[in-house]
């Protein structure tokens, strides 16, 4: 990628906000997931990252986490598969010795020009990865979470205002927001907080991999700040929601770092 995404949290200084915690991050091999994994490690957490097949990217993330002095467990496999979602949680718990923070971050997108171009297969795959995995991984994780634990879902600006070329993706992100609101009410009595981060344009490997070159060149220039965010700029939002010291009274929130775009409502 040119330029290379900033997703290694090189200048980030931790304050032991997550000391002794154990976190599972889906889609943790690169981009926002990598930045979150490194930030969590610098705050004192051991992490497990679930990813598809990007073994080199995952190994680099593990190297960065280990350089921060924490453990990193790599769990490859397809989170669009029902059985794998439960297996990911069980492996993370077994190897880390427990679970305190869950970050549902894995995502798939493929632009289309019209609804007619959007196949049943793509629609179902996008939902399987982007929202069914959030439900399944969360459900598998709940028996291991206790009072004070935190769940953080990655949504998107597209779930707040739609996107004409990412119809299925935007629909799943809207579903993630509603899932977050509903689960916050469901889990309040158990003392488990659940929130979402809904970024605007972020420069990650997903962008050049899924968009035509002419759109990649203009990516992010439409927002008032005139540029896409780097993952390093988004990861602190996840630290905020993960750290009870910072966000103990926050649940059911959707935090939207969107570069100055004004949203309705």
Q: Strands, helices and their partners?
A:
Layout: E1 22-26, H1 31-42, E2 46-51, H2 55-67, E3 72-76, H3 82-96, E4 101-104, H4 120-141, E5 150-154, H5 158-161, H6 167-187, E6 193-197, H7 206-210, H8 213-218, H9 231-242, H10 244-247, E7 254-255
Which residue ranges are poorly predicted, with pLDDT under 50 across at least 5 consecutive positions? none
If you compute it from the alpha carbons, what radius of gyration comes out, rounded to the nearest whole angstrom? 17 Å
Largest sheet: 7 strands, parallel
**Residue share in helix:** 40-55%
- Secondary-structure-derived class: alpha/beta
Shape: globular
Q: What's the order of the H and E elements?
A: EHEHEHEHEHHEHHHHE
Distance between the termini: 36 Å
Q: Total helix count?
A: 10
* Total strand segments: 7
Mean pLDDT: 93
In which order are the strands of the major sheet placed?
3-2-1-4-5-6-7
- How much strand content do the residues show? 5-15%
């Amino acid at each position: 990628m040119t330029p290379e995404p900033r997703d290694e949290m090189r200048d980030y200084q931790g304050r032991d906000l997550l000391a002794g915690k154990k976190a599972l991050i889906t889609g943790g091999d690169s981009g926002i997931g990598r930045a979150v994994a490194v930030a969590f490690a610098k705050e004192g957490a051991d992490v497990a990252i679930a990813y598809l097949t990007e073994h080199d990217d995952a190994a680099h993330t593990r190297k960065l986490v280990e350089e921060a002095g924490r453990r990193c467990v790599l769990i490859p496999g397809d989170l669009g598969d029902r059985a794998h979602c439960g297996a990911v949680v069980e492996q993370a718990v077994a190897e880390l010795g427990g679970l305190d923070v869950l970050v549902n971050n894995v995502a798939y997108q493929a632009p289309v020009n019209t609804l007619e171009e959007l196949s049943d297969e793509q629609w179902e795959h996008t939902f399987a990865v982007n929202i069914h995995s959030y439900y399944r991984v969360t459900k598998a994780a709940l028996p291991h979470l206790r009072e004070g634990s935190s769940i953080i879902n990655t949504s998107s600006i597209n779930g707040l205002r739609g996107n004409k070329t990412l119809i299925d993706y935007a629909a799943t992100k809207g579903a993630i927001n509603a899932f977050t609101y509903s689960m916050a009410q469901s889990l309040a009595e158990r003392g488990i907080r659940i929130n979402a981060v809904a970024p605007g344009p972020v420069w990650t490997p997903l962008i050049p991999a899924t968009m035509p070159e002419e759109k990649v060149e203009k990516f992010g220039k439409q927002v008032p700040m005139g540029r896409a965010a780097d993952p390093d700029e988004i990861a602190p939002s996840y630290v905020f929601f993960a750290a009870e010291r910072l966000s103990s009274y926050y649940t059911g929130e959707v935090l939207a770092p969107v570069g100055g775009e004004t949203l309705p409502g």
